[in-house]
Every structure is written in structure tokens, then in C-alpha cells.
Here is the input.
Amino acid sequence: MGDEILSATFDDGGALIVVGEVDSYSTPELSARCADDAWNGVIDLSGVTFMDSSGIRLLVEANRAERRSLVLRAPSEAVVRLLELSGVAPSFAIET
Amino acid sequence: MAMAWLELEVTPQPAQIAPTRAAVHRFLCAEGVPGTIADDLRLVASELVTNAVTHGPARPVAVTVDIAAPEVVLAVSNRSPRWALPPSPWGFAPPTVPQGRGLGLVAALCDQVEVRGDDHHVEIVCWRAWAEDGS
Here is the structure.
């Protein structure tokens, strides 16, 4: 069964648009997109309905990658709560 | 007074984490637990089931949810030795370290967390208070 809980696609400007649920099962697909040369470093999280610590791990790793400066665009309520709870929110550039 | 019980046996595969947390969330909402608390416990369930599936043996993971106002008790157990878990209380990794937040989130989102078990079995039991008037 291919349970698709996440979609991650690039818009025309090269931003990564993430829709669905980010967990340890779906983060490998996201990691692959983050390594793609087409990505401009902006990750749109407005359509993320669920994220757990696997998602924080991915964002922290992407933020540390030197060739990009990561921008979190329009994080959903679920993402904002998670970032704030775990104390990592101040280390990200967040574009509302 | 609301009283309800849910018991799930989860096949230890990463693809089962999403349907398991969805089942927990659906059950809590159907029983009248306020949405914010149901959302928090969905996250707790995801973290605990992920740990059990990722680090535990290839044996089913048991998830139970016991709603008895004024509290919800969520428990996740598997056949790992008790000592495989870091000692609580659990905190958060520094902001630049990728890993080490799952159990910190569990502790932050629950009123009380207890680890039970022995050399062959571990169970994490979480309590979260709620009121039927939505507070």
C-alpha cells in the first residue's frame, strides 16, 4: 500500500511546497527534495497538517547546510506550535 | 462522566505511524476531548510509536488510550528492555542539534509521564488533564 501522507513539489520560483504530514516515514522524500539543485532554500509549510520531531530534525539539518539560507514560509499553526515548544523557533528565518 | 477505552496493536513499520496517530486523534475527538488536547496527544502518540517502531524489536507495539474525565491516559509499550530508554526527566537538544527532541516534547505536552518495565518490556504512560466543558 502506498500511503501518501505528504507531497513536496517546487513552485516556479524554486520554493519547496510541502503539503500533508511530516513524520519519520515521510521525511526521506523531503530530504531528497532539499538536496535538489532546483530548490531556492524557501520551504512553504502552510499546508502542513502535522509535524513531529522528525520534521524539526530535517529543518535543523537543512538550516545547517552551508550553501543555502533556509526560509520557512507561512508555517501552519501545527508547525509554529512544534517549533515554539521545542525552542528552535528563534534559529529560523520565518516569513509569514 | 466520559469514560472510553481504545486499544491498538501496531505492526512495527514506519508506514503504520500515521494511521495509528490518526486513530488516536479520531477517538479522542469522537469522545469529546477538546481539539487542542487531542492535537497534543496525537503528537505524543506519534513520538512514542515512532520510537518503538524505530528502536524496538520487530514485535507489535501496543497503544492504549483511556479517557476518564478529568484525564486521558495514553500508554505505548513494546518488547524492548526498560534500560534502552534514556532516564527521565527528558529535555530538549540545543537548537542547532538535529536530534533529541521526541521525548522532550512528550514530557512538555503531558502533565505526568512514567516509564515502566523490566528487561523484556517497556511501557511509557502519559497523563493529560482535561475538562468536559472544553477547558
